[in-house]
Amino acid sequence: MKENQTFLTEFILTGFSISPNLHIFLFVLFLLVYIITVMGNLLIIVVIGSDRTLHIPMYLFLFVLSLSESCYSLVIIPKMLLDLLAKSKTISFAGCAAQMFFFLGLGGTNCFILTIMGFDRYLAICKPLHYPVLMNTQVILWLVAFSWVAGFLISVAEIILIFRLPFCDSNIINHFFCHMRTVVRLACTDESTTEVVVSAISIFGLSGSFLFIILTYVFILSTIFRIPSTDGWQKAFSTCASHLIVVIMHYGFAAIVYLRPNSPGTLDNDTLISIPYTIITPLLSPVIFTLRNKEIKFAVRKVISKNTHSPKL
């Protein structure tokens, strides 16, 4: 056991290991990214919520994903922006646990929603005659509820494993948020077992959901290749393209963060490597879904046109 064990009340976030002169630049850059992210996701939420023609499973799942992505970025970016301008980059013990809880829970929820979206495309393309029965309103609600509950149950398990550990005098987190692996390394006891278990949970959740998505696309592609007309191919591919791009981006960035082998120098690069997963993914998801979907683009134009030509009082 490490010496000088104490009860910590707060952690210190080191943030980005760059010149303080660049903090203002990063603040402006990440603030713009955050504003675009929130506006993009809110636009999708408003458009889908207000247009009844989009009240079908595919877009209702996109509605839930945009809501989850908005909350996901809210957990990390505002605190990071404040720390870029602050001299004292501290976070309370409870605040660190809460941030990690919501970050892991919402990240897990995003994975499960993307998995369900893949399953929805499988039913729509491979089981078109049974689709209205198999994907009814009750099933949609159950699937959405499952995504949120499963995501946060995994988060609860990981939080309990991490914060039951005793922490020592060292309270410096070499990151811009309470990163799971970085916090575990601050424990007084031998944390290797806990780190292995927590990493195994994350790997199982990521790889399991990703393999399920891959399996659904194997069936989807086998069905598409049996379609005789080129127009049928294009229509089927167009409904899947946006989802597939977001899945590759989401799981690709997540794999870089969570599936890397642990080594003494690994944590030094965690800060930069976490930027795509925590900041870039929530930014690009609404952009990809909007730009590559004709129905969404048409609904966005309709909302903008309606607000532009509405009578002023």
UniProtKB/TrEMBL annotation:
CDD domains named among the record's database cross-references: 7tmA_OR10A-like (cd15225)
GO function term, MF aspect, one: olfactory receptor activity
Subcellular location: Cell membrane
Keyword Transmembrane applies: yes
Keyword Transmembrane in record: yes
A Pfam match: 7tm_4
Topology in membrane: Multi-pass membrane protein
UniProtKB keywords: Cell membrane, G-protein coupled receptor, Membrane, Olfaction, Receptor, Sensory transduction, Transducer, Transmembrane, Transmembrane helix
A single cellular component GO annotation: plasma membrane
Record family assignment: Belongs to the G-protein coupled receptor 1 family.
SUPFAM superfamilies registered for this protein in UniProt: Family A G protein-coupled receptor-like
Gene: LOC129327577
Main location: membrane
Superkingdom of the source species: Eukaryota
Transmembrane annotation, as ranges: 24-47, 59-77, 97-119, 139-163, 200-224, 236-259, 271-291
UniProt protein name: Olfactory receptor
